[in-house]
Amino acid sequence: MSILEAHDLRRTFTTTTGVLRRNRKQVEAVRGVSFAIEPGELFGLLGPNGAGKTTTIKMLITLLLPTAGSANILGLDVVRDAREVRRHIGYVFGGDRGLYERLSAQDNLRYFAELYAVPARDQRARIGELLELVGLTGREKERVEGFSRGMRQRLHIARGLLHDPALLFLDEPSIGIDPVGARELRATIAGLRSAGKTILLTTHYMFEADELCDRIAVLSQGELVAEGTPAQLKARVTAGSVVEVETFSGVGPADVRGKVDAVGALPGVRSVVVDDRPDGETVVVQVEPGVDVTAAVLGTLSGIRVGRVVTREPTLEDAYVQLVSS
Amino acid sequence: MLTVGGVISFRGLFNWLNPYVYVPTMLVAPIFQILLFVYIGRSAGVGTDAFYLVGNAVQYASIPCLFAMANTIAGERWTQTLGIVLSTPANRVALFVGRSLPVIANGWFVAMFSLFVGGWVLGVDLPVSAWPGIALTIAIASASCTGLGLLQAALALRVRSTAVLSNIVFGVLLVFTGTNVALDSLPEWMATAGRLMPLTHAIEACREVVAGASLSAVAPLLLREGLIGAVFAVLGLAALRWVEAESRRHATLELQ
């Protein structure tokens, strides 16, 4: 049996503007999302900002009711059996907050152990195990306000595991963490996966998803646009290549963004994306197999100062960008 | 959850209440309120010092009780722990009643301190034999007012600016509960409304205890005070449950 099954989940929000004349507007944040997570799987949910990831997670962790569709965790309906579902899930989100700053790490865990009804006689041992798991042994008496973001995030994970949930939701856990902290966090998550914990992870970092996830679903504009292993998603664009052109349009007379449509219209070009750099832009062109468009792209970008030009194999990030921009 | 959880959450949410904040707002401010109304009473030639002292000391319990209960939600929003707390299976009655226990204790301490120090400053005779009765009366007053605070906590699930409402309710209690103007002297509708509010009966009972009445003599007043507090507490818990359910339906829960 799957740990989680979502069937055609939908969520519509009604927003209102104006004071005297109230204008109502319906926004479909999630539009028929279906997927399943198997026991022991680390499942990635990717998508750009506003794609519906957080709304989907809120429905799955029982904080929001779906407008239509259904979801169950361990066979328990997230609407009807909300309280029972909560016993079996852990929820961790990224960022600075989400802990009681002026309490020690131990007291934070102790409080949530109470909320999750961890028996008093087991609390001390359980907290000790989890602090060791996330590498915070010896720091448990310190106030959280003195913790680095990486340490806080690892404490968050310990909190989410207090009641040994069947499914752990990690909502962008590595956001804003420095590279060393992020590496430690990924090691912790990889350790959980090795221990057989079932995890739903959302992240914006493709290398993180590539490294950690067994399967990935990509959300775009509220819809699931692709699902598969990282290798399967990459295979969607591996039959081809990627041309990256560094540009400095601030120096030249033309704006590179005005040329995107023209580059996209070139024969053999699948998609074009412009990424900003501090000193200019990078034009990322995905190309059909067996086609060399380098000269044509450079010709189209005439008038713009061009730097390094690289042709390389596609990555998961390329697959993701193609999926969400198509 | 009820005791350990309540105390840890109080420490977590109110740790900013260090002595530099606590002493001026909880211990000094009520003395000024007492002095203000005692001197107004003296200059107007109405009421005794004890009348204003008891009224204002007991009424000041509403500051910790109202503000703190609303802050059990608003504070969670500030620390961004509200979503995490609400995604736990914790029994909501135990969760919020647990959070109210330290609040009641704090309200009791603030009012007792105000009465003791205010009485000492003004030279009001508060007989030693009256203190057990006073302590019980103020405990019931704090609990009753915290019941009203639970209702505010429910509202805090929908709105961010809970302090505005707490200030208004504090003002309403100051006027309607007979703190400075006896209910008999208020317009009938105000007196009727006052009799349905927390603190009114406790203030009256406390004045009688200070004047020498026995606990059994004021028991009916204390029972009414406790009943009103219980009604507000039940309403508050029901409202918390309803607002949380509606928030899931309409996505109106302000999580962060």
UniProtKB/TrEMBL annotation, chain A:
Source organism superkingdom: Bacteria
InterPro entries, per database record: AAA+_ATPase (IPR003593), ABC_transporter-like_ATP-bd (IPR003439), ABC_transporter_ATP-binding (IPR050763), P-loop_NTPase (IPR027417)
GO molecular function: ATP binding; ATP hydrolysis activity
Location of this chain's protein in the cell: Cell membrane
Annotated membrane topology: Peripheral membrane protein
Keywords attached to this entry: Antibiotic resistance, ATP-binding, Nucleotide-binding, Transport
Entry GO CC: plasma membrane
Example of a GO biological process term: response to antibiotic
Pfam families: ABC_tran
Domain named ABC transporter: residues: 4-246
Primary location: membrane
Residue ranges of the TM segments: none
Protein name per UniProt: ABC transporter ATP-binding protein
The organism of origin for this protein: Candidatus Phosphoribacter hodrii
